[in-house]
Amino acid sequence: MAITKEEIKHIAELARLDLSAEEQEKFGAQLDLILGYVKQLDEVNTKGVEITSQVSGLVDVWREDEARDWPRDEVERALSQGDLEGGQVKVKKVL
Amino acid sequence: MNLNELTIKKARQKLVAGEISALSLTVACLEKIKKADSDIRACLTVCEEEAILEAKLADQRIAAGEQGSLLGIPYLCKDNIMTKGIRTTAASLILGGYTAPYDATVIKKLKAAGAILLGKTNLDEFAHGASTENSAYGPTRNPHDLSRVPGGSSGGSAAALAAEMCLFAIGSDTGGSIRYPASFCGVVGLKPSYGRVSRSGLLSMTSSTDVIGPLTKTVYDAALVLQVIAGRDKLDATTALEDVDDYSVELASSFSLNGLTIGLPNEYFLPELNKQVAQKVKEAARKLEAAGAKLIPVSLPYTKYGIPVYYVITPSEISSNLARFDGIGWGLANDKAQDLQELYKFTRGQGFGPEVKRRIMLGTYALSAGYYDAYYKKAQSVRTLIIKDFTAAFKKVDLLLTPTAPHAAFKIGEQVNDPLAMYLEDVFVTGASLAGLPAISVPAGRVDIEAGRLMPIGAQLIAPRLEEKLLLKVAEILE
After folding, report:
1. Is B78 tagged catalytic?
2. Helices (DSSP H) in B4-47: which residue ranges?
């Protein structure tokens, strides 16, 4: 089951990843190979087997929903690394 | 002996006795980095000024009578862990100019303990890889043979430590990234249980398996570092609630393993395993037997599905975790983009390297409509069966002994065009990661890789969840 060029373009679009034509071709072939390999999981009978999404053994870890102070220098450094205007993070036009 | 070659334990004895200062220890490490790192390329950033300042502060604390297992001890840290005021790149161009605004919890704890950060080490970009060749800043070289890889993804940490640039190094292990390079570089590498060490401030890769841990020269030193970095953290809701054991108390004193059973899983010793590696791990097994342990064969029948499960779950979590690199607020922002969609696509297309893109594509595919059940959910179900394998084995045995890597370090460039071959490198290390179990790689001698050239390999011990104390005690016998 080879992945089509259209599928690769679609996945790249979903992942918001600009890929060159060369990259699309290369990743397409490699994805085929890797997915072919992981397909061996189909041999395993998993009927009635629960899924595992985490192994911490923890359930519902709660904390009070309260605002906490964060050191000013850390806040300033965090905000100083992107495009800012009037104290707000600047983004490109959406439409 | 040069000061940078000391173990933590020896250095602490000398610091306490006033024979050496934290400053002289730090300077010795910095000098070694200057001398050796142009060849090895283990460090992405060296923070000399800050380190010297911290060393002077540590000397003041020592002079004031303060005790502490890591007080005055210089270390290096993998560059996917946030360090306040010091560049953190994850070996990616997308974070090339990024300076972390705060310290990871692990760094905070090490700072409070008086350990001295010398700099940040190279890795496969965002820890995606097993050779450190996927770094945007070029590969690190194995100090035992500069034409070979150090393993990965914590290859910079393993190589720096093996080259005596620091007394210990911090790495992260998602599917073997501490243990595998420790094997290639001939050092000790400890992956704690999932949740034993806080992930706050670690750049997320696979949130369900990521763990921070130490690379050290001895098992005893690994116990010292784990003691400081382990524990519950309010900033990481997945940290374990259980109290942290006293890890070093039984080390060195106890040489009897009477009453302990060690399992050798059949599936980790298949006929195709490299003969020399098999022999070295069998020698390690005999050491444990000589110390009183009973050895028995066990079976973990789902072992062969570890890699396919790992390479569905990991790219899936990566594709989601790396969505945060969007060109806004931090890191690289493409300057040709006209609108928001272009900013996302161009920034990510420009800033991510080939392996990161490959994993994002794989993960996006596995999570996309129509394939979610066939790939992601299937892998999560088989993950349950892999965990059950371990649970069943630990009803019969206390620990498992396996090889860490299928062979010794390979040549730089040898496997670079074959991503699937690289994924298969993780065959012995993904199991413990998927199950969240603590595991350690301990040097198991050297094997002949070509015409009498010897390279290190490691043996791996795997323990039940949160049994680091037992793991370290038995691992020390292997040294």
Report:
1. yes
2. 8-16, 22-40
